[in-house]
Design brief:
The structure is a single chain. About 50% of the residues lie in helices and about 10% in strands. It is built from 15 helices and nine strands. Helix 1 crosses helix 2, helix 10 crosses helix 12 and helix 11 packs across helix 15. The protein is elongated, with a radius of gyration of 24 Å. The two termini are about 30 Å apart.
Length: about 300
């Protein structure tokens, strides 16, 4: 992977695609275009797609390529302001109150002013994202937004409107420079249109065979070339079987890595059966592939690659 860091955001779509490619992320024209526009227009980028297609990786690569810190808010059911935005360091505040009382301080206003100061503020991801580091706004990844509830989604909409947060005891904290915002969702539920309207949108799909083969070459360079071709062809066919959970690019990379560690040079039924747990994560899918259906897929792969070769 390249260590190249851009001194400024890319100035064209081609430059955007090249920037991602320099950090081993292969982006198509559509993704390169929407990402370029999101950076130029300073708008959040809303990415939808199946799990494992590389949505989160886009934010990580942007952080590396632009030399900006990555602030990640991992969403989950029940996420609240204390976990996402800020909270007060209550134990330290209580200790400060006791020390003040022990020293004979009776000015409650002064005590309150002391304990509700920046010194006792714990900054969570949203508040961190509003702070520039070294004069450069961070990349703010809001990951798997669909896991939160609508109340938090409404709060987030307010934050993204003005890039500011109001803390009653301190006042309003506003970003000097808006962060680069990447929002991802696996579409387990629909996100409200009001939030989507604040963003530019892109559906991240599974890569085609040529793209996925190049990804394997870059991410698992020790993998045998013929084996890489078999792996990609096999995975591409699995995605057409309507499994409960299709393997993502991350799983393809894991499978290629596992087979390389086992010194395999070609796929065979036993090898697939032994290692299928690195590719598929649901027992019903695994059981289905371990039947004659899986053998049929392998036969088709061998036949197609033989004809192509």
């Amino acid at each position: 992977m390249s260590d190249h860091v851009a001194s400024s955001p890319p100035s064209s779509i081609d430059e955007t695609i090249a920037m991602l490619g320099a950090h081993d992320y292969l982006a198509g024209r559509a993704l390169g275009t929407v990402l370029f526009l999101a950076l130029r227009m300073k708008r959040p980028l809303f990415l939808e797609g199946e799990a494992g297609v590389g949505k989160t990786e886009i934010a990580k690569v942007l952080s590396k390529a632009l030399g900006r810190p990555l602030i990640r808010l991992q969403c989950y059911e029940g996420l609240d302001v204390a976990s996402a935005v800020y909270e007060w360091n209550y134990p330290a505040q209580m200790l400060e109150i006791r020390l003040a009382e022990a020293s004979g301080m009776t000015d409650r206003g002064r005590i309150e002013s002391d304990i509700f100061s920046e010194r006792y503020l714990i900054r969570r991801p949203v508040l961190q994202a509003l702070s520039s580091v070294g004069g450069r706004a961070p990349v703010f990844l809001i990951d798997e937004l669909d896991r939160t509830d609508e109340a938090f989604e409404a709060f987030l909409l307010e934050v993204l409107s003005d890039f500011q947060v109001t803390i009653p005891e301190l006042g309003t904290i506003k970003a000097g420079e808006p962060p680069i915002v990447i929002i991802t969702t696996n579409r387990t539920r629909e996100v409200h249109d009001a939030l989507k309207r604040r963003c530019l949108y892109h559906w991240v799909d599974y890569p085609d065979a040529a793209q996925e083969l190049e990804i394997i070459r870059r991410k698992v360079p020790r993998c045998d070339e013929a084996l890489s071709a078999q792996i990609v062809a096999y995975v591409q066919k699995l995605r057409g079987l309507d499994l409960f959970k299709n393997p993502g690019v991350a799983e393809t990379i894991d499978w290629a890595t596992a087979l390389t560690e086992l010194d395999r040079l070609a796929l065979d039924p036993q090898t697939i059966s032994d290692t299928i747990g690195t590719l598929l994560k649901y027992q019903d899918d695994i059981a289905r592939i371990q039947t004659s259906e899986g053998a049929k897929v392998l036969d088709e792969v061998r036949h197609e690659l033989a004809q192509a070769g």
